[in-house]
Amino acid sequence: MSNKVAKLTLDGSTESIDLPVYSGTIGPDVVDVGGLTAKGLFTYDPGFMSTASCKSDITYIDGDKGVLLHRGYPIEQLAEHSDFLETCFLLLNGELPTAEEKTGFENSIRYHTMVHEQLYQFFKGFPRDAHPMAIMVGVVGALSAFYHDSLDITNAKDRELAAHRLIAKLPTIAAMCYKHAVGQPFMYPRNDFSFAENFLHMMFNTPCEDAKVNPILAKAMDTIFLLHADHEQNASTSTVRLAGSTGANPFACIASGIAALWGPAHGGANEAVLNMLDEIQDESRIEEFIKRAKDKNDPFRLMGFGHRVYKNFDPRAKVMRKICDEVLEDLGVENDPLFRIARRLEKIALEDEYFIERKLYPNVDFYSGIILKAIGIPTSMFTVIFAIGRTPGWISHWKEMISNPYKIGRPRQLYTGHTQRDYPAK
Ligand code: ACO
Known about the structure:
This protein is mainly alpha-helical. The protein contains 17 helices and six strands. The protein starts with a strand and ends in a 24-residue tail after the last helix.
């Protein structure tokens, strides 16, 4: 598999340990440290900053160059020529669908959008002001209770069925969370609508008013889902893989991914953008907040700026910016004070030395937060939208792992506690 070898020599030892080095199709080489345990050593890498936890064919990111590829296709091209469901098929199956496969996949997703009638009862147990992510974690995990007959993870058909059910039912459950919060009746899905239209229909229509969905907003929604579809081994995807490595069922695994996504350091950033814009309140206070963002003694950061991986630009943010302009113009809200603050902030940050030097560009969350707000989606639902978009990525990684030989994920540790001691005599 590899001719290259890395040699590890410990201080004071005359012997070195050979570690195989593997090359992927692109990206950095990896050093296989698996053999170190037999030599009485573990590696230490909190936060997995330098650790490849798996081999994967799905997504490639080069943060320095602003590259994001799904199965080799650049995200910008997918956003322009593909749509969310086609990208789901690509992520799951490795290739773009033929026309026939595309229709078959779309029909299968349509067919699975309804949830079991008994699931509606679950919502009665949640307070009206429950955070929608709290409901999502519980209800998505509970889906496994309804499909005992098709939870054999060693069976490819069962895996496919679970994948389609999850992609199809997440928007239905998400919209139910919103309807529950506002006290409106749940809307059944519509099979004559596209994926994104159907979601907006279940969110904003009522039995009294079954309005047509605005195509510009539906397109924006579809693109938001598509741009979030996968991002290789991020925290929630790694969580799904780790849960899946125990043989847990796919609904439980995706629920664990939703839980990991909930954190503000992961899926909660676009919600934080809107909270920040609300806090700024008025254009006259922008300078004050920019000053605070630059002040080393102030923990405040400009939300929606900077990225751990993308250090030049976030390719998703470029696409999102264009959609953001279209949505604000279509809704005629460009002059809304909140959106004016966002625009000014973007302009200042793009021209200010502090942000340019540190490569702090507006990220995907900055624009998606603004678009979702303009569409009328409450901020508490933003991470839920992210979860709908990320579902195909989570399942593709789970499926990739389960379909190949894999080991239970079980990291080791650097123990720093007490050595053995005796229980005090009484
Ligand atoms: N506002 C002001 N200053 C910032 C910001 C910001 N948003 N982000 C980074 N900096 C500064 C840091 O203070 C630091 O300055 P210094 O070199 O003078 O000390 C420098 O830029 C580098 O910052 P790091 O924290 O080392 O960058 P890191 O890569 O670790 O952080 C992160 C990336 C967490 C995204 C950060 O930029 C941030 O907190 N941004 C705001 C939150 C946000 O928008 N998160 C969403 C990310 S996108 C996503 O998850 C899909």
